[in-house]
Amino acid sequence: MRKQGYTLMEVMITIIILGVIASLSLPRLTFSIERTRSADGLQILNALLSAQIVYEYENPGAYASDIDDLDITIPASDSFNNFSVADDPTAVASVQRNGAGGYNYLLEIDEDGIVSCDNKTSPSGTCTKLGF
Prior knowledge:
By secondary structure, the protein is α+β, with helices and mostly antiparallel strands. The chain is built from two helices and four strands. The longest helix is centred in the N-terminal third of the chain and has 51 residues, at 8-58. 20% of the residues are buried.
């Protein structure tokens, strides 16, 4: 008469299959989280661009070169730091990814709202995968 339950071999095979599935899905999950975090940086950039447009409207022909000159308060971000602005139409604002999770890149926005990404020390192809 056979006892009810699983053999050691059945349990080991199940654990191996679950391990393979987890190892294949974890990179996709990790990058999905990074894509969500990059949206935080885009929101900050768009807020800075809007403030720069207001500044340029009040001071024709010039953008603020110091973030303190803008009428904006940016809440602290867990994912981005080094918010900066420049009197440069090709990069009126930028934010730096803080390196958490191995991601470290710079997002910049120009006066037309076009975002560019500079892949510093992030995994290869991060900016391309994010759509920049």
